[in-house]
Amino acid sequence: MVYETQRPEETYRLGEAMGQEACPGTVYCLEGDLGVGKTVFTQGFAKGLGVGGPVNSPTFTILQQYEDGRMPLYHFDVYRIGDVEEMEEIGYEDCFYGEGVCLVEWPSLIREILPERTLWVTIEKDVEKGFDYRRITVEERKHP
Ligand code: ADP
Ligand code: MG
Q1: Is 42 in the pocket of ligand 1 (CB under 6 A)?
Q2: Number of the ligand 1 atom closest to the C-alpha atom of 133
Q3: 5 membership: H or E segment, kind and range
Q4: What are the angstrom distances between the C-alpha of 119 and each of 23, 28, 114, 141?
Q5: If phi over 0 gives left and psi between -120 and 50 gives alpha, with beta otherwise, what is residue 139?
Q6: Is residue 50 within 6 Å of ligand 1 at its C-beta?
Q7: What is the pLDDT of residues 84-97, one digit of tens each?
Q8: At what angle do helices 8-21 and 38-49 cross, to 10 degrees?
Q9: Contact 63/84 with Cβ under 8 angstroms?
Q10: Could you give phi then psi for residue 123, rounded to 5 degrees?
Q11: Contact criterion met (CB below 8 Å) for 71 and 46
Q12: Which of 4, 9, 34, 36 to mutate to test the pocket of ligand 1 (most atoms within 8 A of CB)?
């Protein structure tokens, strides 16, 4: 499925709609360059799940956890990860294979520990279509 947004609010709303539909145990991989809108999408997604408080990028902590929505939300940003062992220290398996949903920014950096089935949300810019334009592709992926 391919979506196009023209403003941050539209990406937020797409995230919100997907948060409303989310099922427990799903891992969403948010792919895209720095500043493309992964965290904006996550903020909308959290809203759609019913998370009340502010959602910010967990870059310096790797994981932020929200328990006040209709199911737990685990927001990973692994941009600064050195080794996947850090994911083990965090206890990622309880998140990936638990009762909540996971959103992972920079998933390619932890490819070897991603679950077999994930939903990839790829966000891309296209400068020819304007500064705030984003193409957002959502697809199921199966890892070997
Ligand atoms: P990332 O988490 O991918 O590094 P952020 O979500 O933190 O990026 O930041 C995205 C930035 O791009 C924000 O400043 C946001 O306002 C801006 N932006 C402009 N247009 C869009 C759009 N269509 N969708 C999402 N963000 C957009
Ligand atoms: Mg971010």
Answers
A1: no
A2: 23
A3: strand 2-5
A4: 12, 5, 11, 6
A5: beta
A6: no
A7: 999 999 999 999 99
A8: 40
A9: no
A10: -110, 125
A11: no
A12: 36
- Residue 55: which of 77, 39, 37 has the closest Cα? 39
CA distance linking residue 20 with residue 23, whole number of Å = 9
- For the purposes of burial, counting CB atoms within 10 Å of the CB of 45, is it exposed (0-12), middle (13-18) or buried (19 or more)? buried
Residue 119 tokens, joined: 């939903």
What is the distance between the terminal CA atoms of the chain, rounded to a whole angstrom?
22
Q: Is 123 exposed, middle or buried (0-12, 13-18, 19+ CB in 10 A)?
A: buried
Q: Under a CB-based contact definition with an 8 Å cutoff, are residues 110 and 104 in contact?
A: yes
In 55-91, which ranges are continuous DSSP H helix?
85-90
- How confident is the model over 95-142, as pLDDT tens digits? 999 999 999 999 999 999 999 999 999 999 999 999 999 999 999 999
Amino acid code (one letter) for 29: C
Instruction: Note whether 41 and 123 are within 8 A (CB).
Output: yes
Q: Is the dihedral of CA 132, 21, 113, 77 positive or negative?
A: positive
Rounded CA gap, 67 and 50, in Å?
10
Q: What residues form DSSP beta bridges with 119?
A: 28, 140
